[in-house]
Design a protein that fits this description.
By secondary structure, the chain is of the alpha/beta class. It is 39% helix and 17% strand.
Length: 251
């Protein structure tokens, strides 16, 4: 009888912390137009604990790793405006809950990387992993993925070809949430048509929009979630994505 090993799940901790922290906030009206905002950090921690345990049990995980973003971000070296549009406040208890996850759950933070990148590297470096996140950007990573907000999908697999194709689509459409623009005037449906022609077609779309190939490359680097071999932890060096030498999808 062949023994099936349990998966190592890679959890997007940034999202869990935000959801748990925002979920416990309560506004109180004291009268005479006086309002205050309150949050119970203990309740937020308990909510997060329950979520993590439920994920481990639901996916029958043999191991888990929770990943968080560093305060520094290598993408800001490429484009200082990256995520500059995120000017909304953090939840009241965000910092305390994050410290709790780092301590109690031994979450991983890698210098200069976002949680997405840490997860992308581990997912493509280790065996039998499952990414756990609601973030659609993980479609750019060749891996197995579980979306907690869509449990009916179960664990699904993104192939390398699919991941590379989605990376090019993201390069064209950009991401307003993350604050990079992509190619002006290109929506998802048009992008899907363009990427059939590979990287040369992506360049052509940018040139037609009055932009250079260098702009296209920068957008592709902003859209790229790092994979195995793209980062050296000891030196904090990121190996930036480079265009393929042949007219094919990115490698």
């Amino acid at each position: 009888m062949v023994k099936v090993s349990k998966p190592h799940i890679l959890i997007d901790g940034d999202i869990l912390i935000y959801e748990a922290s925002f979920g416990v906030e309560k506004s109180i009206h004291w009268g005479d137009d006086m309002w205050t905002l309150h949050a119970d950090a203990r309740e937020a921690k308990q909510r997060l604990d329950v979520q993590i345990v439920e994920l481990v049990e639901t996916l029958d995980a043999g191991k888990y790793t929770i990943c968080l973003s560093d305060s520094e971000n290598f993408r800001k070296d490429l484009d200082p405006s990256y995520k500059a549009n995120r000017n909304s406040r953090k939840p009241v208890v965000y910092r305390e809950v994050k410290d709790y996850v780092l301590d109690a759950w031994k979450a991983q933070v890698w210098p200069r990387l976002e949680a997405d990148d840490v997860i992308g590297i581990l997912a493509t470096r280790l065996k039998n992993t499952v990414i756990v996140s609601i973030d659609k950007d993980f479609k750019t990573v060749p891996a197995r993925i579980y979306n907690p907000s869509k449990p009916e999908l179960g664990i699904y697999t993104v192939t390398k070809e699919e991941a590379d194709r989605w990376h090019l689509i993201q390069t064209l459409t950009g991401d307003r949430v993350d604050g990079y623009s992509g190619c002006p005037g290109i929506g998802p449906k048009r992008a899907e048509q363009i990427v059939e022609g590979g990287w040369p077609a992506v360049i052509e779309a940018y040139v037609k929009a009055g932009l250079s190939e260098e702009v296209a490359i920068t957008q592709a680097r902003l859209a790229r979630i790092l994979r195995k071999g793209d980062y050296t932890k000891k030196t904090r060096r990121v190996k930036l994505w480079t265009p393929p030498k042949t007219p094919a999808l990115c490698q």
